[in-house]
Amino acid sequence: MSEAIGEMILPGTYIEVRSEGLIGVGGISTGNIGIVGTAQKGPVDAVQVLGSYSEALEVFGAYDRWNPAASPDPPSLTLTRALAQVFKGGGSTVYAVRIGAGTPGTMEWSVLVSDAADAAELFRLTADSPGSWANALVVKVDGDAGTLTVQLGKAKEVFSGNAGAMAAEINAASRFVTASLSAGADGGKAVMSAKPVTPNVGSNGPAVTTTEVAAGLALLASETVNIVTVAGLGASVVGATLLAHLEATENDGRERMGVLGASGDELTNVATDASAIGNARAILVAPGIRSDDAARTEANKQVSLPPSYSAALVAGRLSTLAPHISLTNKDVSADGLTKYYTRAEQKQLLGNRALVLQKNLGIRCLKGITTDNGAFRQISVRRITDFAKFGVRLGCNPYIGRLNNSRVRAALKATLDGFLAGMVLDEMLIGYQLEVGATRAQEIAGQAVVVMTLQPTFSIDFVKVIMNLS
User: Fold this and answer.
1) pLDDT (tens digit, 9 = 90+) per residue, 308-356?
2) Is 194 within 8 Å of 110 (Cβ atoms)?
3) How many domains does the chain divide into?
4) Strand order in the sheet with 138-142
5) Beta-sheet strands, E only, within 147-305
6) Domain boundary residue among 142, 163, 196?
7) Tag placement on the chain: N or C end, fewer CB within 10 Å?
8) Chain mean pLDDT for the chain
9) Domain co-membership, 210 together with 284
């Protein structure tokens, strides 16, 4: 059977199959989260897709003890701690990028032909990712048994053979290190000792700036991300950087929402942050949260985390909701808040377009709003619009390159009708109007024009009760 009739020479029946009537809109992701931050382990400046917190620990290592003071000590690592909140909030698919200031150091060991001071190096072991995690690795050589042991905690790897065979086995099987034969080394010799290469200890580069944040966000630009946040850094630091990312991805047809923590719990901090952002794609969260710190050995493990970690928790919760479901009055899995606002303070914060967390039968979002002053105050309306844009783009793309005539345009209209009618059925829209056409000049230019009027569904933020007593 021919899909398109070429030439008819032999007598018979020739059939052309036209598939336009079967084109539909496929599945659309709505809850994928993108996040950047610092960690003690894992590849730097590379996107890692995670499905659980246990995967986050495996890839990026545990977070360090919470250190709210950045000076004189280095700031706390942010990525794994924020991922703990993302998954606690309900996140299921996360695109995470580890960033670091400068070039984070990678731990190395020199494996030698003997234990003499001037012993020749046979091969070099390198931790499989930069960071302080590898400083806890223990590398031992048993010359009599002809083995090399790599141990991290209770996990142990043992390799044997001459230098060449041992290096090959390490590269094939080790989860912790890689091996590279040294120039001019005799791979047939037995290894006798190993020692750290002291200048090359693992380091994390935790003191990142907006330069590293922007580079990490750029790596997420081409990913299917719907919600994005920056671990551990507030709106006063990364607000402009995140807004630039949101604008760039919107221009590229990869729309997403940004969730930011306020730079502090005080009302003046929130007001300043909100006035600097003011964007329909930006959500400003306050206050901070109370959470257990797994790195603490004390009986009381609770610490106070700034609003940037509240943002990670809210991002996780938002990812669990369909686009038309509002965050208003939704519970979040916080152990407590760092500040409990009074009713007057809540009114002032809502006037500054902040998403406020409050204690009310648990911890809840007071009102699901963006920092926009216009029509996209409700987060759900912005997400409905983005869902419609993405679906229409998916529905229209298969028609590019097809005939520009009334039959194909009718099929295009049927495809979009089916998608938009589904949005009405799912209660994302209460109605819509759709026109697909083209003038003769537009046909010649290869243009088909789609005009839509959408009526998104708004959530109930207030209930007005009128009581008539008699």
Assistant:
1) 999 999 999 999 999 999 999 999 999 999 999 999 999 999 999 999 9
2) yes
3) 2
4) 138-142, 147-152, 155-160
5) 147-152, 155-160, 177-181, 193-196, 227-230, 257-261, 282-286, 289-292, 302-305
6) 196
7) C
8) 91
9) yes
